[in-house]
What does this fold into?
Amino acid sequence: MRPSDAGTTENAPVNDIQDAGGPRRMNMPAPDRRMGGWTGVGYDDIEVGQTYPPQPLPVSASDVSRFYRSIGEVRPAPEIGTRIPAFLLNEIRALKKQMKFPPGVLHAQEEIEMHSAARLGEPLMVSIAITNKYIRNDKRFIVFDQQVRCATEHRSIMTIKHILYWPC
It folds into this structure.
């Protein structure tokens, strides 16, 4: 590369690519800066391969009862050993405890694989790994896998692949 080519792309000098986010590389959408001073984890800060320590995933009898009431079912109070609805295990609070999401994150897609039933009273743990990030149609996405396990038996209960739209 010639010294006079520094700071240019094939199409235009970097400084000529201006938009609301300021100068940027070709093929990289500008960050959405309408967040009003938000400071948190931006797309460029997310590292594929990053894992987080397992965290407890508490589910109580009142959580199970509240779930069934929310879908219009009247059931007796759940007892220890009652199956926990899978819906209560599929959540992203564990990832939100690890990083500050920007406003505007959208849940774009998920894939769920059930391995065994979770039972009320057994200690559950959730592990998270960032497995991919990509840009499609000028939109940023991150992919993370969530593993739910029984902490005492180390039995796999559920694997969830989440794809999130990441605005900045």
Remarks:
- The chain has a mean pLDDT of 84.
- The chain is about 10% helix and 30% strand.
- The two ends are 31 Å apart (CA to CA).
- The helical segments are 61-70, 93-98.
